[in-house]
């Protein structure tokens, strides 16, 4: 029987799902993808319906009803609390790991914060082809890794390693990495130049309802780039190009529009340069906090699409990364790389699902037939009610037995007191 694992990257707009065959290997790189597709979330009232459609399509595609799903890991755009996820922009979408496990007969189910999934995805990179090196540094095996990524928002995570025995017999140390979530993108924005101080005051006035605190995500992100542009157009009205300005302000994706006009509009170029400078400062802050001597990886959508703006000459990204006073020499030892792969979250979910699947065993022939169709919600409810009735019955029976025992003991004590010699 084929052992499969399901991985997914579930955002607010799209649900990307894939199935990998883990029958012959626990190694992520050796597991072939047997089915992959993407769905628009707006077309489904519940995530259960998305997964049901995906599994049915996979069965038809594979033409094999005998497979079983050993593990599923989903990267989700939201906080994971007690194995449950609620999507703020889709109120009907409440993902519960236990419900999905029972409804679809999956051995193990786990949810990951989407940026933690990016952290695990680093472990799958073919670095010569999928990374651009900004600073070679002095890489050290087994040391922490860190990932910082600006896109719609600003995410940060870090990975730590522990040594494991080498089963290959070659005698080399094998490092097992675990990723950890942070909210590093919400630390305070700390300006360095006079212009950045003015930007901070502008953002304080703009977001005054938040107690005059400004997070670095307000500056280093897609929306942050728009905030910087709006600040600059207000400070330098004589530099505004009306047609381009109108396109930016009316666009649904102002950051992409600004990036498109960086070689035609001086304000757009200045906004991009300013954001990249601050981006470099924040990456340096992250490097000081995590000391990732195995590498600091820059992910997210902004860096790979604007790679030239991270290089010396276009911005002070690396200069600002290294300028940390007395500890600047430490940062020169840390490798800095830009991740070019676009499916890092899905890869990270695959890594975690493969680890979970390596500890599972195929079902027996007696239970294999039950895996041909996923259990519907009403079947799950019926089973739950059946177990509840059994619990109530046995609880009542124990109560009756305890009452009888208490009554018997009371009678014996009364009889003993009556018959005891004076």
From TrEMBL:
Gene3D superfamilies documented for this protein: 3.30.420.40, 3.40.367.20
Spell out where the chain crosses the membrane: 391-416
Please give the coiled-coil regions recorded for this protein.
none
GO terms for biological process, alphabetical: glycolytic process
Statement: the UniProt record of this protein carries the keyword Transmembrane: yes
InterPro entries given in the database record: ATPase_NBD, Glucokinase
Keywords for the protein's UniProt record, in alphabetical order = Kinase, Membrane, Transferase, Transmembrane, Transmembrane helix
| Pfam families the UniProt entry points to | Glucokinase
User: What does the record give under GO molecular function?
Assistant: ATP binding; D-glucose binding; glucokinase activity
Q: Which domain of life is it from?
A: Eukaryota
Please tell me whether the keyword Transmembrane helix is annotated for this protein.
Answer: yes
Q: What is this protein called?
A: Glucokinase
User: Could you tell me which species this protein originates from?
Assistant: Cyanidioschyzon merolae (strain NIES-3377 / 10D) (Unicellular red alga)
């Amino acid at each position: 029987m084929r052992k499969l694992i399901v991985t997914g990257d579930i955002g607010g707009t799209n649900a990307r799902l894939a199935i990998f065959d883990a029958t012959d290997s626990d190694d992520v790189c050796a597991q072939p993808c047997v089915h992959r597709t993407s769905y628009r979330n707006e077309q489904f009232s519940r995530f259960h319906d998305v997964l049901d459609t995906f599994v049915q399509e996979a069965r038809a595609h594979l033409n094999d009803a005998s497979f079983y799903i050993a593990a599923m890991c989903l990267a989700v755009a939201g906080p994971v609390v007690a194995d449950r996820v609620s999507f703020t922009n889709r109120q009907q979408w409440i993902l519960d790991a236990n419900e999905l496990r029972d409804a679809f007969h999956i051995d193990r189910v786990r949810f990951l914060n989407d940026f933690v999934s990016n952290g695990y995805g680093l472990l799958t990179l073919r670095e010569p082809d999928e990374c651009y090196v900004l600073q070679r540094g002095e890489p050290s095996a087994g040391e922490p890794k860190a990932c910082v990524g600006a896109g719609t928002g600003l995410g940060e995570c870090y990975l730590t390693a522990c040594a494991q025995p080498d089963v290959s017999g070659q005698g080399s140390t094998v490092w097992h990495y675990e990723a950890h979530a942070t909210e590093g993108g919400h630390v305070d924005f700390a300006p360095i130049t006079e212009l950045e101080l003015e930007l901070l005051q502008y953002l304080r006035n703009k977001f005054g309802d938040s107690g005059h605190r400004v997070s670095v995500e307000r500056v280093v992100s897609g929306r942050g780039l728009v905030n910087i542009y709006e600040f600059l157009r207000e400070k330098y009205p004589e530099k505004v190009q009306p047609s381009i300005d109108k396109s930016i302000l009316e666009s649904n994706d102002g950051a992409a529009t600004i990036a498109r006009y960086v070689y035609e509009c001086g304000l757009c170029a200045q906004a991009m340069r300013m954001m990249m400078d601050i981006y470099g400062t924040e990456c340096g802050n992250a490097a000081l906090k995590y000391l990732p001597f195995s590498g600091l990886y820059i992910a997210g959508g902004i860096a790979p699409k604007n790679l030239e703006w991270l290089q010396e000459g276009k911005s002070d990204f690396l200069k600002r990364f290294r300028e940390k006073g007395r500890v600047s020499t430490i940062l020169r030892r840390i490798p800095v790389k830009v991740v070019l792969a676009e499916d890092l979250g899905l890869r990270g979910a695959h890594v975690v699902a493969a680890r979970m699947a390596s500890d599972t065993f195929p079902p027996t022939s007696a239970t294999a037939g039950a895996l041909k169709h996923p259990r519907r919600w009403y079947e799950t409810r019926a089973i739950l009610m059946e177990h509840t009735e059994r619990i109530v019955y046995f609880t009542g029976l124990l109560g009756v037995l305890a009452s009888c025992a208490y009554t018997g003991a009371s009678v014996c004590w009364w009889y003993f007191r009556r018959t005891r010699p004076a």
